[in-house]
Amino acid sequence: MTALSILNLIAPTGMVVSGEILYEGEDVLKKNKRDLRMFRGNKISMVFQEPMTSLNPVFTVGNQIDEVIKIHLRLSSKEAKERTIELLKLVNMPLPEQRYSEYPHQLSGGMRQRVMIAMALSCNPALLICDEPTTALDVTVQAQVLKLINKLKRQMNMSIMLITHDLAVISEIADRVIVMYAGQIVEEAKERDIFNKSLHPYTEALLKSIPSFSKNTDQLYMIKGMVPNLLQKHEGCLFSPRCDYAGRKCFEDKPPLTNHGDSRVRCHKYLEGWEGCG
To answer: Helix 109-121 to helix 77-90 angle, to the nearest 10 degrees?
Structure first.
């Protein structure tokens, strides 16, 4: 939802009710449809979550990438084809000239994800949003896709916003991490700080939930309770019913997102007047 909001792609049943989405000083939410069409792809591109269904099954791979290039870069059909094949080579697609004329159903999951990445890179965006880019891929292909994303980040000098629930992927890719719970940022820190000295109880609980061969235990750690229903009104911290450290204040007042060294955290533990667990 955050990624779709950044590109102003929220479905008609939803809306951005407050705030701004600023890119180079401009509010994306205030752009008209024509400006948005040129903004998406040229400035920010997105690789969507499911490579199996993100491509149109009735058009060839080449046709779908060509369309993006023609619209944004104003190239001829011949130039667009040459650019598409270059992109397929860039993302390490085997036999790129052959894949250009094939349909999505003729490709493996990993190949389809490479096509999605090539399409997203076609206009040299400054920011690439990757929404769970390794979903539905086997472990070997996941590693290949992550290695490719890392290589492209350096090679094209672009920023990547990676959305994932996989902490191993975060450790492989991220420089800085934002942890979200129930639609709110609860912690923001450098990748090494998230893993070595996490601040928020939710981040701490996530790390404790990772299975470890070194821990001599018969039972995996589990965060108690359930995620709150956001359609209902909630007092206090949204994580407090599941938190091992929650005190009375946590159930009554919503904590602000505050600076803590190089990090930011939304927790009463780091505010004045904290009295510990209730």
So the answer is: 120
Query: Phi, psi (5° rounding) for residue 142?
Result: -55, -45
Whole-number Å distance between alpha carbons of 184 and 223: 18
pTM given for the model: 0.86
* Stretch (H or E) spanning 168: helix 167-173
Q: Which amino acid is at 79?
A: E
Taking the C-alpha atoms of residue 169 and residue 167, their distance in angstroms, rounded to an integer, is: 5
Q: Which of 112, 130, 151 shows the shortest CA–CA distance to 6?
A: 130
Q: How far apart are CA 35 and CA 46, in angstroms?
A: 17
Q: Are 123 and 41 in contact (CB under 8 A)?
A: yes
Most distant CA atoms of the chain, gap in Å: 69
Tell me, what amino acid is at 110?
G
Mean pLDDT of 241-256: 91
CA–CA gap between residue 135 and residue 18 (Å, rounded): 31
Regarding beta strands 258-260 and 159-163, do their DSSP bridges make them parallel or antiparallel, or are they unpaired? unpaired
Residues 264 and 79: their CA atoms lie apart, in Å, by: 47
Domain with CATH 3.40.50.300 in the chain: 2-174
CATH of region 2-174: 3.40.50.300
pLDDT, tens only, 170-226: 888 899 999 999 989 999 999 999 999 999 999 999 999 888 777 666 778 889 999
Burial code of 80-96, b = ≥16 C-beta within 10 A, e = fewer?
A: bbebbbebbebbbbeeb
What span, in angstroms and rounded, lies between the C-alpha atoms of 35 and 7? Answer: 12
